[in-house]
TrEMBL record:
Gene3D superfamilies: FAD/NAD(P)-binding domain
The species this protein was found in: Glacieibacterium arshaanense
Domain FAD-binding stretches: 2-120
Parts forming coiled coils: none
Domain of life of the source: Bacteria
Name used for this protein in its record: Electron transfer flavoprotein
Pfam family, one: FAD_binding_3
GO molecular function, one term: FAD binding
InterPro entries named among the record's database cross-references: FAD-bd, FAD/NAD-bd_sf, Geranylgeranyl_reductase
Length: 373
């Protein structure tokens, strides 16, 4: 029997694997992708996420990401701009996740790539490489459900479709995006546009199923609709798409927070998106994933039970997830969008305040042993 098995080698899984290895309990981590892959994500790495990475002994600076210290909110011809209360980094998940898995392996974790977990029954895992028995299971499969441990996502916002495409933009767009994340509100959705390493721009957007259906369920039609937004059209006018087709995802359960129940398996620890899903605009999903990886690793190393860990994680992140989910609902209505731009136009500092209020709070980070500057 393997003492601890981690399912999923995204940020939550890699963080927990590194910390368990540091604690002298190196786990086995199973990742279904055989090689580094692009992931749908805005790739906005918050300061909290950076602090978590630093606490793992991981130098994110060497990945050459793009610093981001300002935010511009755009709706139609109107826009408002503010300083962020921190400097974020734009870095691709392909590069970040692969480097972090290598870091976990160097710390002593056993990483098996190309192995998919198909079902969980207590400590028995059915995998593409055969059965595995585990004393403790850390579930970090992100957006993907694993049979036998699916999330209860009733009441969440799951009617959105996500798209991501990379672009090589022209010099004017590059200059306008330097140091900036732009959030473009449009009918039925919003899009984030920012630079990542290598000067590439990441366009990551969410649109309601209803709006996408009205556009004939077609990316080209959606993109053409986006190009009627004046500022977005300026940014992407001469841009070259870099992926053969955009990455897409649907059914992400925004607002989900795992409620521990007495029927939960005692040794199943949910991490990252399997524990809670914050709306994407907050740019804090990666930080929550890393935070959960840290708390879970400490709990497992200390012999604590899963219920205690889940209650602690919930206490740290539930308020932020609820607030961000409420703001996301407001942002999708036409009135909500106009109100947001109007209010923020008068008091731009509000943008920074919203960015601050939807993050893992400082006391929770300090309790988890992080040095926050
Ligand atoms: C549209 C969109 C935009 C976003 N933008 C941002 C942003 O800008 N900033 C931010 O901080 N957050 C953002 N997020 C959220 C962020 O991407 C997630 O919260 C974060 O990736 C969760 O990390 P994780 O480790 O839980 O899961 P993931 O990073 O998804 O990793 C899960 C891993 O598990 C593997 N896996 C899945 N199933 C199995 C299986 N059965 N067996 C083995 N392996 C498996 C997958 O291959 C994957 O590598 C965004 C999310 C979306 C949907």
């Amino acid at each position: 029997m393997t003492e601890t098995v981690i399912i999923g080698g995204g940020l939550a899984g890699a963080a927990a694997a590194t910390l368990l290895a540091h604690a002298g309990k190196p786990p086995l981590l199973l990742e279904r992708d055989a090689a580094p892959a692009d992931k749908i994500c805005g790739e906005f790495l918050s300061t909290e996420a950076q602090a978590h990475l630093a606490a793992l002994g991981f130098d994110v600076g060497r990945l050459g990401g793009a610093p981001i210290s300002r935010i511009r909110l755009v709706a139609g011809a109107r826009s408002a701009e503010a300083a962020l209360p921190f400097t974020a980094i734009g870095v691709s998940r392909r590069v970040l996740d692969a480097a972090l898995l290598d870091h976990a392996a160097a710390a002593g974790a056993e990483i098996q790539r190309g192995v998919s977990v198909r079902g969980i029954d207590g400590g028995s895992l059915a995998t593409s490489a055969g059965p595995v028995n585990a004393g403790t299971v850390l579930l970090a499969s992100g957006k993907h459900e694993v049979r036998g441990a699916a999330r209860d996502t009733k009441g969440t916002i799951d009617d959105l479709i996500g798209f991501k495409q990379y672009f090589r933009v022209d010099a004017a767009a590059h200059a306008a995006l330097a140091g900036m994340i732009e959030v473009h509100l449009f009918d039925g959705g919003y899009a984030g546009l920012q630079l990542i390493e290598g000067g590439v721009a990441n366009l990551c957007l969410l649109v309601t199923r209803a709006r996408f259906a009205a556009l004939g369920r077609n990316w080209d039609a959606l993109f053409a609709a986006l190009m009627t937004e004046p500022l977005l059209a300026r940014r992407l006018a001469d841009a070259q798409p870099l992926l053969p087709k955009p990455l897409t995802i649907s059914g992400v359960p925004y607002g989900f927070i795992h409620h521990a129940s007495p029927t939960d398996p005692a040794r199943l620890f949910r991490m990252g998106d399997q524990a809670g899903v914050i709306p994407s605009f907050s740019g804090d999903g990666m930080s929550i994933a890393l935070h959960s990886g840290r708390l879970a690793a400490h709990a497992v190393a200390a012999g604590a039970d899963a219920a205690t860990y889940h209650a602690r994680l919930r206490g740290d992140v539930a308020r932020q997830i609820r607030l961000a989910t409420w703001l996301q609902r407001a942002g999708f209505s036409g009135i909500g969008q106009r109100l947001m731009i109007g209010v923020i136009g008068i008091a731009p500092a509000l943008l920074g305040a919203i960015a601050g209020a939807t993050r893992v709070p400082e006391p929770a980070l300090k309790r988890a042993g992080l040095a926050i500057s």
